[in-house]
Amino acid sequence: MFNIFFDAWSSLALPWSGAPAQCISGSRFSHGLDENGERALHYRLFIPGDERGPMPLIVMLHGCGQDAADFAAGTGMNALAEKQGCLVLYPEQSCSAHYNKCWNWYDRAHHRRGEGEPALIAGLTRRIMAEHAVDPGRVAVAGLSAGGAMAVILGRTYPDLFSAVGCHSGLAHGSAGSDAGALLAMRTGAAAPAPVASSAHAAASVIVFHGDADATVHRMNSGGVIRQFLDSHALHRRAVDAGVAVEAETGRSGGRAFTRHVHRERSGGIVAEEWTVHGAGHAWSGGDARGSYTDALGPNASQEMLRFFIGSMDA
Questions:
Q1: Can you list the positions of beta strands (E) in 26-112?
Q2: How many beta carbons lie within 10 A of that of residue 245, not counting itself?
Q3: Most buried of 226, 242, 258, 292 (most Cβ within 10 A)?
Q4: Residues 103 and 149: beta-carbon distance below 8 Å
């Protein structure tokens, strides 16, 4: 049943020309293979033309039916990273790990630190950090759909590694522990995601995008992601004044209306942003049609996420 569902999910992708990600003058978009114990992980790495350190690193996790080049083309993140002087790492799920190249966010074997895909991706991230001039305090992770759900897991299990998280059309950590649970969470929203885990490290900040016409992953899941990170933030800051106020704004960008909720500490720092894009489905907002699962309309999710990441890192 679950395989049938993911087949249907893949068929929802918008047409893709198959064109490779943009080549930016002076930059490199290299292939790599990380062989770590029992499992190897292919990846692509964008290196800006003017590689100087220490640089921020953005880890981008594709959705089901996608690969690294497709996701880079659809999000347009490389062009933005060239301007900001960032490295961008695109781990690539293998068909042997999931027939439709989905990250296994719904499997309990991939929910904890030091185990499964979170450990694999964290290990690759650390390798890139060791091989390039990366600022260890300026590393973020983001993803779409299944990739967004895995990005949330990484932000919650490795807050010492990732200072910020971007989740587009994804789900909270622990939203499901089985195939059937995944279907239910995606259709209706998770009833009881994973509880807050104590950590000596500051909770990551989070930015969430979700279309309110998403028929694949229910928009209620975006609220679950926000609540988890706010709870983690409150737990870590329990010894100090951790009050967080929420501000709401509405606007229009790229031909679509949106509502943005900003959760801000009393000191002024932003803990979380939740963007609801009105009329949008299960696709990367403001994306490039050269990639799958993109919507050319709406706020540019890549631009807003990178702005949020840089702001969070510099705070």
A1: 28-36, 39-47, 55-61, 87-92
A2: 10
A3: 292
A4: yes
Beta bridge partners of 274: 208, 261
Residues whose CB is less than 8 angstroms from the CB of residue 220 and which lie 6 or more positions away in sequence, other chains included: 188, 189
Structure tokens at 46: 């964008």
Q: Which two tokens stand for residue 297?
A: 């309309």
Q: For residues 55 and 86, what is the distance between their CA atoms, to the nearest angstrom?
A: 6
Task: Go through 215-229 and write b for each residue having 16 or more CB atoms within 10 A of its CB, e for each that does not.
Answer: ebbbbebbbbbbebb
Whether pLDDT at 200 is above 80:
no
Output the six-digit token pair for 43. Answer: 């990846």
Which of 21-25, 64-68, 199-203, 304-308 comes out lowest in average pLDDT?
Answer: 21-25
- Give the end-to-end CA distance of the chain in Å, rounded to a whole number: 46
Q: Are 128 and 87 in contact (CB under 8 A)?
A: yes
Q: What is the mean pLDDT of the chain?
A: 88
E strand spans, the chain = 28-36, 39-47, 55-61, 87-92, 134-144, 164-168, 205-211, 244-253, 256-265, 270-277, 284-285, 294-295
Strands 205-211 and 87-92: unpaired
Hey, what are 173's tokens? 């950590």
Q: Give the Cα separation of 211 and 276 in Å (integer).
A: 6
> Are 55 and 133 a contacting pair, CB within 8 Å?
yes
CB atoms within 10 A of CB 96: 9
* Cα 181 to Cα 175: distance, rounded to the nearest angstrom: 8
Total residues found in the chain within this entry: 315
Question: Does the structure show a pLDDT above 90 at 120?
Answer: yes
Max distance between CA atoms of the chain, in angstroms, equals 53
**What tokens were used for 51?**
């590689």
Q: Which helix (H) or strand (E) holds 116?
A: helix 116-131
Q: In this structure, are residues 26 and 33 in contact, taking their beta carbons and an 8 Å threshold?
A: no
